[in-house]
Structure formats: C-alpha cells, structure tokens
Amino acid sequence: MNRYPLWKYITVLVALIIGILYTAPNFFGETPAVQVSSAKVTQKVTTQTMGQVEDILRQNNIAFSGTYFQQNGPAGTVRVRLANTDAQLKARDVLDNALNPVKDDPSYTVALNLLSASPDWMSAIGANPMYLGLDLRGGVHFLLQVDMQGALAARYESLTTDIRSILRDARVAVESVNNADSRITATFASEQDRNRAQDVLRTRTNELSFTTSQSGDKFLLNGTILAAEIARVQDTALKQNILTLHNRINELGVAEPIIQQQGLDRIIVQLPGIQDVAKAKEILGRTATLQLRMVDDSPAAQNAMATGTVPFGLESFKDTDGRTVLVRRQVLLTGENLENAQSGATSKLSNLRSTSRWTTRARVFSVIPPATISANAWPSFCLRMARARS
C-alpha cells in the first residue's frame, strides 16, 4: 500500500535524475587538447583568434572535434579538442610555428592541456567533472624562492633617489648620495650641512635610521632601513609574486591551482593535470618586476647610440617596436609604488591605454601639478620587465 503522496516520489525521482546527470561527466574521462593564450598584454585572444586557429588546423589536415573560447577577466583563451596525443603534439607544433613566426618574441602561448570528454550539452548546463587534486590526478609541483635581497636592493635604490630629491628641494648642499652594502651614504663638505640634512630627512623619511661619521675632511650621514620597513618590503614582495603567479597560471587554464606561502620567502605552486611541464615552467619564469626610468633622447645620447656605444650612466634596451632606446640607470619608480593598474581601449578601438594609481611614496610625480604640464611635455618612460629569480 502506498503510504506517501505521489509528489514525494516524483521529487525523489527528479533529485535522483539530476544527481546522476551531474555525476556522469566524471565517467567520461579527459581528451588531449591544445590551448592558445596571449603572451603579451597588447595581444588579445578573441573569437577571431579561434577562427584563425581552426583555419590553420584545416590547412594542415589536422582533425579536431571541437574548439572553445573562454574569457577569464581581461584574458581570453582558445582550446582545441583532439583525438589523441599524436594529433595533440602535431597541432601544438603547427600552431606555434604559425602564430609565432618570431621565436624570440612570441605573441601567443601554445600549451598542451586536457579537456573533459563529456558531451558539449552537459558542459552547457554546468555539468562539469569534479576537479581532482595533485595526489589523485597528477601534475607538477614547484617550489619557488623570492629574491628578498633583490627586493631590498631595489628599495635602497628607490630611497637613494628620494633622498637626492628631498635634499635638492630643501636646497641642502650635498656632494654625493650613494648606495652600497645595504647602506645609503650622503657626503657633505661641512658639519652644518650634514646636520641640516639630517633634520630634513628625519621629518621626510620614516623608513630609515641615520647615523653620522667623518672621513677625513668630509662629513658623512649614513642611513639604513628600519627592521619594520624590511619586513614590509619582504611581505610586499611575497604578496606581489603570489598575485603575479595567479595571473600567469590563468594562461595555462589550470582548474583550482594551489598557490600558497611556505616560510618567509618561498611559494608552493601545485598544478593538477598539467601535461606540458616545460611550458608551465616557462610561463612561471616570466614573473616580472616593474621599473620606471627616464629615457635619454638627447642629441649626445643619440650620437653615441649611432656609433654603437652606451654612455656612462645609461643602459640600452629594445622598445615594443624593436628600436633601441637609452634609459638612465636611476630608477624613478618600482612595482612596490603601484597600487592598481588596468589596461583597456580608447574610443578608437585600435588604440590601447593603461590606467594606473600610485602610492604617496611616488614622489617623482608630485613635483609639478599634472594640470600645468602640456601633453607634449610629459617625459618618456621605459618599462623594464626583468625576469625574476625562481
């Protein structure tokens, strides 16, 4: 005899069907795939890129069972599902050669990946397989060490620049301000100038402790970073590297990666299901530091560059167009002064723009009010992207 109303049986049946439906993708397994993502901020991956990838594969007679475009914030990726690993490796090589004609300056990252073999209609309703960890699925495990000495050296260099600017603004006569052996040393001709500089710097800089000394007839003022500031610099460097690693790993399309701090200067990165270990290591190795320097485009610098020589105090770099530019060694701003940055497009879609917000430590921009500077009077800056140690 039926003891329960019919609607209860129907509810249990519907719940059972939904449970089976959303459990089924775990039994389909995974198929080989190739993923295409952008290797440059200025190179966007769109649905047009997906069409370009399909055309390249058809021209090379490589069969594929589906292409998918996914937008993760500002970054887009294209994934191509293939029948077997042989077709996967061939497709990776063909796409890499076609999309990156200049190997030393690739525009796209082409990596091996895995996609769920469940039908597309299941993915469309959100029936995705359960993401397994490194212990059940396999993958790669990285242990990265942050270059804390490099972070402190950059902070000393930044403070050295700040001290020069402060003393110049206060009209304090100083012979030199140098940074060496984790110490900033300012040299003065008289004790009066040194004492005045010490009073000015103590009110303008909270990161340094100062001591005085004398070398012959020169009066020295020595500054060292306080322990609290050292801890802040190290903590900032660690957090910036973790954030950058998150952004880099998005290029690999890894589901639920593990990125966490270990100790004071190490970061653990676990990437479940990664096939292309070399590509993962390459992408993680692109973690960068940001430095802003003045470009020297004076006639003397241009003449020296034409003869193939680099004047003292300058360095040679390539800009985005491949042209050689000379920049000063003095670092005006670093990544630790950057609070937020976003890229986007102007009203003309062909023009890109970058909007950034800097901390109050970025004193270099506070000398002249921006409203008083014409568009042609802005100084040129060079962004130096230096490979970080890992």
UniProtKB/TrEMBL annotation:
Descriptive protein name: Preprotein translocase subunit SecD
Organism: Advenella kashmirensis (strain DSM 17095 / LMG 22695 / WT001)
Entry keyword Magnesium: no
Record carries keyword Transmembrane helix: yes
Domain named SecD export protein N-terminal TM: residues: 1-112
The entry's keywords: Cell membrane, Membrane, Protein transport, Translocation, Transmembrane, Transmembrane helix, Transport
Protein translocase subunit SecDF P1 domain span: 239-297
Pfam families (alphabetical): Sec_GG, SecD-TM1, SecD_1st
Signal peptide (UniProt feature, chain positions): none
Matches recorded under Gene3D superfamilies: 3.30.70.3220, 3.30.70.3400
GO cellular component: plasma membrane
InterPro entries given in the database record: SecD-TM (IPR027398), SecD/SecF_arch_bac (IPR022813), SecD/SecF_CS (IPR022646), SecD_1st (IPR048631)
